[in-house]
Sequence to fold (595 residues):
Amino acid sequence: MKDLFGTKMDTNGGYGHPLRLPAGCTVSIHQYIWYATIFGLSAVLVVLSCIVYFDSGFGFLGPLKFGAVGSYNSSEGIVVAETGQIKELGGVGDYNSSERNKIGETRQQQNLGGVGDNSNGEGIMVNETGQQQKLGGVGDNGNAEGIMVNETGQQQKLGVVGGNGNGEGIMVNETGQQQKLGGVGDNGNGEGIMVNETGQQNSGEGIMGDETGQQKQPGDVRVNNSGEGFVGLKGEKKQLSECDLSVGMWVRDEAYPIYQSQNCPFMDSGFRCQENGRPDTDYLKWRWQPSDCDLPRFDPRKFLQSIQNRRIVFVGDSIGRNQWESMVCMLAEAVSDKTRIYEVNGNPITKHMGYLSFRFEDYNCTVEYYRAPFLVYQGRPPAGSPPEVRMTLKVDTLDYTSKLWVNGDILVFNTGHWWNYEKTVRWGCYFQEGHTVNIKLDIETAFQKSMNTWVKWVRQHVDSEKSHVFLRTYSPVHFRAGTWKTGGQCHEETWPDLKSSSLSSWKTQIMSEAIQHLQERKNVQSLNITYSAKMRKDGHPSIYYVGKENGPASIKKQDCSHWCLPGVPDQWNHLLYSHLIARGYGDLGTRVSRK
Fold:
């Protein structure tokens, strides 16, 4: 039996003898198969080597191009994708250069500003200069828009927030710079945005995060990473004229105070807390922020221009004097030559009783104070009064200085602190109506009658088309472990009570009713400071109302009623200024700012 080649085979189809090879060569069939296998494997290795060679190239040759397009050595650089197409890489350089990590795992071209993977599981991108942006880095996408890469390697647009790979939320502002956790930037629409701890953008204009990246709700103080307080408002802001300025919160502001006591010669020594040795300064760094709107920036020069040839009149007790001195100092910031501000009668400000009037010569305006702690007339009792009556309060007649209040352009009244047992009945001061002293008349009813008298005076003597009238509400005291005469204290208070509740009393209720009785008058309103002032237990002189040469005072004799200047009364005047703007007073304008 023979095969196709004529070789003799045995009856079983096999070869009965060895394969014939050239002389001297004798190989079995098993050796033949072995040699063939070796040869085949070698061929495969050669093919694979060629593929590697043409794909990656040697350092001096560079990669082989498929479907050559353009010049490989041009400055534009090229990249070969799996499809063999030549890709341009925005002038980045050669594929085999150190910039190879601009190509993702698929070796597809990443467009300018596009994001890919650098084969290490990190998101990368290429900016307009061709530089690689690391995970969480920020660059420019070629359209002058700031972009960034989040932890998944996805591109984040202008103002969009992602993670930077360290569990921190980041964002891009309008300049393309990365904003850290709690930072604020611009989302491209002029709106402030923030990043919380999850890397998510929190909407709402002006919202900020604190150090932890958590968004603060209205009613809380927001402190950014620089220790500055900000507030965010939910929803749309209200117009100033529609906003309740008394509801809000105290926020830290490093721009405060707006003046220094040593630069204001028009201030009682008892209010100069810093000069009197108070060591802490945190109480100076707070401003009032309403919940539903922004206050206008206080502009002393613009305010002086609006009251040119006019009068601002403060009437009330020593807390009213506190506010009056604050106003003089705030306005004085706009006058470089302080000698152009003077008391019209040459009277000294310290320990002066009665009334004082400071003229701002360059604006021909005056800022005046009239001492009338009860608003109504206090004097000697009528003949035949009971022996215990040493003096009386005529609840149906205003103070003797009231004739000087008339024609004030801006009138600010306050009362309340002296309406108590200690300042009246204990001193032998009772209440009089007409020519009759009513020993049995209680203090609350007497106060009600006095406020009714004030309402009548406003109706009869104030032209509400010309004048603006404010009744400032009661300013709380903060004596702890006692009262003003029993060793009450506040000298260790250095921080506001930011979660204080509202304060309501018969005094505030009666004053509120008085304003309601004048609703028909055009420019008569309440200057409500009670809620905000209740939070500021840190703002009193305490033991620092005595000069350094004689102070501080004894801890048993503290002042927790008046306020340090600069300090809380500055914010009352800021509210006053804001109310005037809301009413269109003078040329103050309506532009608002957070500063």
Remarks:
- The radius of gyration is 42 Å.
- The first helix runs from residue 29 to 56.
- Helices lie at 29-56, 300-306, 318-332, 402-405, 443-461, 506-516, 530-534, 568-582.
- The chain has a mean pLDDT of 74.
